[in-house]
Amino acid sequence: MPPVNETLESLVLSLVPKTRTDESLKRQLVAHSIDILNSHIGQSRETDIGHLADLVKRYLSQSSPSGASSLKFTNLLSRLLDQPVLSRKHAALLFLYSLASTSQPSTTPTFLPSLAPPPPQRPNLSPLNPSNPLPDSNPPRGKSKADLLREYRVRTGRPQLPEHLLLRDTLYLLQGISGKYVRFVPAKDPDKEKQIVFVDDPKYVIPTPTKSLIHRLSEVGHLYTRVEALVRDREGRPGVGMIEQSLCHYLQTQLTQYYRLIAILESQMASSLSPVSDDPSSNLENATVEESGLTLRRLDVWISDWRLRMRMMSACVEGARDAHGGALVNLIHGYTDNGDPFVRHFTDQLLEEVSKPFFATLHRWIFSGELYDPYSEFFVAVDPELAHMSYVASGGGQLSGDGGFAGGNDDITGEREGGLRLWEAKYKFEREMLPAFVGEAFGRKIFSTGKSLNFIRYSCHDSDWVVTREKLANTGGTLKYSDISGLERSIDHAYQIASQRLFDVFIEKFRLLDHLRALKHYLLLGYGDFADQLMETLGPSLARPANTLYRHNLTATLETAIRSSSAQNDPVDVLRRLDARMLEYSHGEIGWDVFTLEYKVDAPIDTVLDPDSMMKYLKLFNHLWKMRRVERTLNKGWMRIAGGSKSFFQVPELNYEWHQIRVVQAEMIHFIRQMQAYCELEVMECSWQVLADFVEKKEGDLDALIEAHRSYLDRMVKKVLLLSPKVGREENLLNQVRELFATILQFREATDNFYNYCLSESARRDAQRDTQRGVYTTFEHGSDPSSLEGLAPILHRIKEYGASFSERAQAIVQGLQSHADLDCRFLGIRLSFSDFYRTKKEQHQAQSHQRS
Amino acid sequence: MSSREADRLSAAQQTLDLLHDISQLLGTQLDKETLATCVSMIESGANPEALAAVIQELRRERTSINAQSPANGR
Prior knowledge:
The structure holds 2 protein chains of 2 kinds. Chain A has helices at residues 2-15, 23-38, 49-63, 68-82, 89-103, 145-156, 163-174, 208-236, 242-278, 283-292, 296-322, 326-333, 341-354, 356-368, 384-403, 409-416, 418-425, 440-458, 463-474, 484-509, 512-523, 528-542, 551-564, 572-577, 591-594, 611-648, 655-697, 702-720, 732-773, 784-817, 822-831, 836-851, and strands at 182-185, 195-198, 380-382, 427-429, 578-582, 595-599. Chain A is mainly alpha-helical. Chain A has 5 domains: 1-38, no CATH class; 161-271 and 295-322, no CATH class; 328-390 and 417-509, no CATH class; 511-609, no CATH class; 643-775 and 787-837. In chain A, the strands form 3 sheets. In chain A, strands 1-2 form a two-stranded antiparallel sheet. Chain A starts with a helix and ends with a helix. Chain B is mainly alpha-helical. Chain B has one domain. Chain B is built from 3 helices and no strands. Chain B has helices spanning 2-26, 32-43, 48-73. The N and C termini of chain B lie far apart (58 Å). The interface between A and B is large, with 59 and 48 residues. Chain A: It holds the Pfam family GCP_N_terminal. Chain A: One of its GO terms (molecular function) is gamma-tubulin binding. Chain A: Keywords: Cytoplasm, Cytoskeleton, Microtubule. Chain A: Residues 512-837 form the Gamma tubulin complex component C-terminal domain.
């Protein structure tokens, strides 16, 4: 622009008088001045005149300690500010100020051209230098302290290492490579980290602050090598978990970004180096370099963001070394609660990436019930033995369900192992693998959902349903870490559907309720007529030794009992499963001891009715069957006595004995009736009601169903068998009751003998009377003395058994009164109604007292 | 119009005087004429610090020429 040129020319003319004669010098100077004017010296300053005024005042007070000049300046400035003419007063003032401050070279320049302190080895600050023939040490230009120091160093012969060399080394360090002057040295102790070592160069020294700066920078390089080592290591190794793979993937992308940064820094460094070497005369470019070039400190700023990131990554890498799968996710999740938003954000991103395979597995698990987890990273673990079994067991189950009624025992016991074990042990819940963001209760839900689906699919042969469900669910979108609430919703949904379905399958398809009812009817003797019928037909053969019994006879009898009772109306599928067999018997046992009914279940019903529960059912059956037998025996005995009373009157002297027997028998009948009523009404029906209510509600999953059935059964076992909670003495009462049953049977036998005696006695008397009347009868043997001899031991035995029954009953009542279970205690009260046994006991004691 | 022009001139004069005073105070060793030139340049958009550098440069040039010229003349 010409006006500027002209004014500049006039300026040059006035300032350098010689140019008036020397045209070329003038042109040169003008050109040079324009260059300077177009340069960027001191641009982008804030235009705050107050600040400038402060600077000026400080300058003035420096040059003249008395405050007069500064006061004068304030005065002048305020007047200047009132003047309307100048539009750029600030600039004018700045001009004057810079002129004044630079014209006094001894003062350090207040405005440094660059924000960063100049690197010590830079040749000179002055932009005028290259074209200026005057050397640095020109007297008018004073030296800064840094200059002095530098000169001192030059004199001592060991100048500082130029920063650009160090910069290059540092960039290498950032990539984990040793540089020329600074290198990584692996520590001798393998546990320790690598160390940074500065190579001693005889020609140069590296100043201590720079060293520490490089140390700081090299941390990033060190972390980088660690992260990179992990990624490399995992890349080549087979069998790396999916979660770890995705972690590596994420780290790799991060590292790529890091490489990009390094590349940018490198190009920056190159651009900052090139002008110095290429074109020393272009001082203006030098100035721009100062603005944009790379220094160690700038590098530090650039890298600081990455330092944090590298630290996080390195922490994850450390964790990945010994954590695995879900535990690794957990570890990373631990950092999301960090207060630093940067760390939190980083971790969130990382987690989003890392949890992808986890969610993929989760998706398959809760929507299709398949565990796709090749590296066992999911919090559900499969038992390798049982994983295979699902197919075999279900196949076998189907077979035996079709025609396996009379199938071999081996096959059935092999089958028995399936069901519950399959359900309970095929998949395991591993708490330490559960990601923290899911939560334990939720994890259980997920676990149960997948398990149910899997079960429906493989053990219940309902895979079509699962497949359609899966298709439906797939439309719902994917599961993500960032959408935890959506995740929870979909899991809840899936859980509900799966458990509902499993319930339906069990109850409708597999008729679980029918089976439970059948167990109750047959094994727990719910069908009274059936039980009576069975006992009637079996009774005679059961009285024989166990080894004379044959299974086919038993089954045939069972068939007869079913046909002749109301049981024949039950579904065929139920009856088919009912079987009679003998337990393993030892020598001397009779049929009553070993006979048992059996109900066969197969997969998948045996998940609920597992072998253990079947054992309990058998135990219950055994006890109830015995009770039934005693009751029947007593009934028959009573009937006989009542019916035979006519004949007793022929032997009037034994009437008192018969009365005694009837009293004891009535006591026994009371006892057994109360016992039965208790078992049937208070225990079995009540427990059944609870179970039925649960099934009705259809809540919870298969586990809950199993649990409900188990508690139903346990309750019955505990109460029917009068088990006490005391350790080691659980079966005390049960044994007493059994002994009592045995006593009753013996008593019955003794009364039978007595009855027979009476019968024969009355027959003898009849015969006597006949002979007195002169009627001839064939009855002649059995004389008086012999028969009287036979009477005494029989009566003695009856008395003995009666007394022992009474004693035992007393003991049982006493035991029941202190029983922990309330129902059992009530049984005790019923048995000893109106304190019958206590008064009896007191009487007894009183009697013994009197005797003594 | 002439009065306004005169006002403007006197104001400019006053401003220049003020600036000159400040310049004196700061010891810039600029005469009024050069100062006027410089201020007009700044008003037209020149970079003040660069301009200061120019002044410095030119002064240095002068001293160097002065130092050389006696030798040349001899």
